[in-house]
Design goal:
11 helices, MetI-like fold, single chain, 257 residues
Length: 257
């Protein structure tokens, strides 16, 4: 199932869910105070964009997300490549990396707030801790999964050093790295929003926290809708970039009709 037919099915499932939700809220089967109504949520989102109220918050969250995504991915890819090519160092650092990865990121949010204040830095730091490990483990595994035959043939042809990294290791790990990018987008947004939710003066997390503080369920759901659409757009952009950069990879055969 592909193309237009797939999109129609996806849209139909969403429309059916929203209609059922609207009907249940209007008939009293769901309490609108706790669940709101899709029509009211849509009206709130449209009002935010029409009045321009949402744009400053969207800008702050976008900036925090991009910084966390960029630095977290860069550090994760660099360290992943380095440790994959240096097994001795990887063996020494392995327990420390696993221990750091086991720390719940939510626990770090108040610490980063104490260290860096309520500004952008604390949200970026939290986002980096979420993005870094996703990029690191995917890059590390991708480099380790390089075909020994391809690697051996490249060395026979005299490929060494940086050229071996550029033409063998990175292309082989590219699909792993892009897979981590698509996952990291959501984590970068989570880091920014959780940090804003715990303490900030702007951002989508701040907007949701303000709505929650006055029991404005419609505002909470509206903020969540904006976040979901925001992440879907970013994921689509990364997918487009992936298709352009990995055009050399053979497409998977088979699958549903």
């Amino acid at each position: 199932m592909r193309g237009l037919r797939l999109r129609l099915w996806q849209g139909g499932v969403l429309l059916g869910f929203l209609l059922l939700w609207e009907w249940a809220s209007r008939t009293g089967r769901l309490d609108p105070f706790f669940f709101s109504k899709p029509s009211e949520i849509l009206a709130r989102v449209l009002r935010w964009f029409a009045s321009g109220e949402i744009y400053p918050h969207l800008y702050v969250t976008t900036l925090e997300m991009l910084l966390a995504f960029g630095f977290g991915t860069l550090l994760g890819v660099l360290l992943g490549v380095w440790l994959a090519l240096a097994p001795g160092v990887a063996a020494v650092l392995d327990p420390y990396i696993k221990a750091l990865n086991a720390i719940p990121r939510v626990v770090l949010a108040p610490i980063f707030t104490l260290w860096f204040g309520l500004g952008i830095l604390s949200k970026v730091a939290l986002g980096i801790t979420l993005v870094f490990f996703v990029a690191f483990f995917n890059t590390y595994q991708g480099v380790k999964e390089v075909s020994p035959v391809v690697l051996h043939n490249a060395k026979l042809l005299g490929v060494r050093g940086f050229h071996l990294l550029r033409y063998v290791y990175l292309p082989s790990a590219a699909s792993w790295i892009f897979s981590s990018l698509r996952t990291s987008i959501g984590f970068a947004v989570i880091g920014a929003v959780v940090g804003e939710y715990l303490g900030s003066a702007a951002g989508l997390g701040y907007l949701i926290a303000q709505a929650e503080g006055v029991f404005d369920t419609t505002g909470v759901f509206a903020g969540m809708v904006v976040l979901m659409v925001f992440v879907l757009i970013l994921d689509a952009l990364v997918g487009l970039l992936e298709r352009r950069l990995l055009v050399w990879q053979p497409k998977a055969q088979g699958g549903g009709q």
